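Please check this:
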Amino acid sequence: MSAAAAALPDVLRDSRLLILAGSGGVGKTTSSAALALQAALAGRRVLVLTIDPARRLLQALGLHGQDLPSNTPLEVLPLRRAHLPADALDSSGELRNRGTLHAMMLDAESGAIDMVERLLPTAALRDQVMNNRIYRAFLPALSASPDYMALELISFLMSDPRFDLLVLDTPPMHNAVDFLHAGGTLAAFINERVLKWFSKVPLPGQKSRFSILGAGTSMAMSVLGRLLGNETLPDIAEFFASFQEVLPRLRERANETDRMLRSRDTHFVIVTAPGETSLREARHLHRELREQTMHIAGFIINRVIQVPRMLADPRQLVDATARLRQPLLDGGLGLAESAALTERLVQAAARLRHLGEADQAHVASLRRLAGTDAFCTVAAQREDDIHTLAELRDLGARLLDASVAT
């Protein structure tokens, strides 16, 4: 690998935010958990965060039957210390390098509530907004943007002294582009025109709630009154007045999250698998990240078929199957049956070799796409899922070693 590209161990050491992105079903969650565990074993204080409500992260971490609290970090290693390899622990049973590993699942609705509470400057204003009927009706719309809520929560967690590395497992690739744009989209929506409109809303105690708003706003209020009932107009005005405080802060937070994604200590890893669809989506995501000037650390290519050397060489395969015939005959098969069985073995090996060659062609294509600017690490196809920390640690170690060897 070129000296211009950092290997995966260097990326784990130097990142503050590591974002794994890719299409669905390619192993993003398991890869996120494996890299988070490796960083913790190396001494970092890690939070792995998933946006996916499925329980795949719990399964990968070996936390079967455990609830993953929403928006509350759960410390993983004390729960699973007995399942860690002995060489990872010191004589007192603690991690040798004093690393930590927490896991968390995003809940957009409670995240939206927490965000607005953080943005409101006083307890009185928080109570006023939280008890407002219009705010409670507005909240589901804000909660319906899990992409932005994830970014805002990550931005908040970046200042948490418990963590020095956040590993984010993103939604599937078809949602990833929206995720990348979430901060900028919200900031653009809360533009100067919107801020100016809200600034005209009289604060509570001013002589008139509607007289200075102008004909357009008065008409809008009239429409809202007909739709929601005139008795709601004071709530609407109070909501708008209260959000004079919130919107500028919300806009700045949106800009901060957008800058966070482009920070030099934020790195993206594109997770993919062999196959034309996955390859096409990986190329699209790579192009999108480059256009957005975000830092691509490299690729993880999961589920690559690796053909044993004996099967990869047709001559060795023919010799091996020839040696099988006599034991088959000794076991009671007839000459024709043993010949048919070994021929089927040869055909199955040829199909496997064909699949392996196709996978290697896809790997080579992604390595050309990565060039000298990014690593490209390969994980072999497994026969079963990962269920224990020991298996997760083994996967993480192989990902790190493969990226160095690229």
